[in-house]
Amino acid sequence: QVQLVESGGGLVQAGGSLRLSCVDSGRTFSNYAMGWFRQSPGKEREFVAVISRGGNTASADSVKGRFTISRDNTKNTVYLQMNSLKPEDAAVYYCAASTSGGYFHTPRFGYEYDRWGQGTQVTVSS
Q: What is the rounded CA–CA span in Å between residue 49 and residue 93?
């Protein structure tokens, strides 16, 4: 079964950094746009960042300038570098894979995604 497996979450102080990774066990990673979403208790899942098959990126306004998404197709891995973390960034972070749209499409809605990981917890202490 093809899986997405996230890692890199943990506890960090406000202002600190974490790098999340998501490995795709499938063989067609480069055919997918890859996104990161997050969900905290009592809140809806929200879009964080996405990188298209062609390598262009988009991110939520709340994380612009602090979070960077990247991918390494040779390792079937997408990364989310998170800097200057704030307590409101605390959530379970999910990676997801999408075949929606064209080569440079950056899907931002959950329904555009075909596969999801199990999530990794990020906790930010103030």
A: 11
pLDDT in tens, 36-78: 999 999 999 999 999 999 999 999 999 999 999 999 999 999 9
For residues 108 and 48, what is the distance between their CA atoms, to the nearest angstrom? 8
**Residues 93/6, Cβ–Cβ less than 8 Å:** yes
Residue 72 tokens read as: 């390494």
Q: Name the pairing type of β-strands 33-39 and 67-72.
A: unpaired
Backbone angles phi, psi at 47, to 5 degrees: -70, 140
DSSP symbol at 109: S
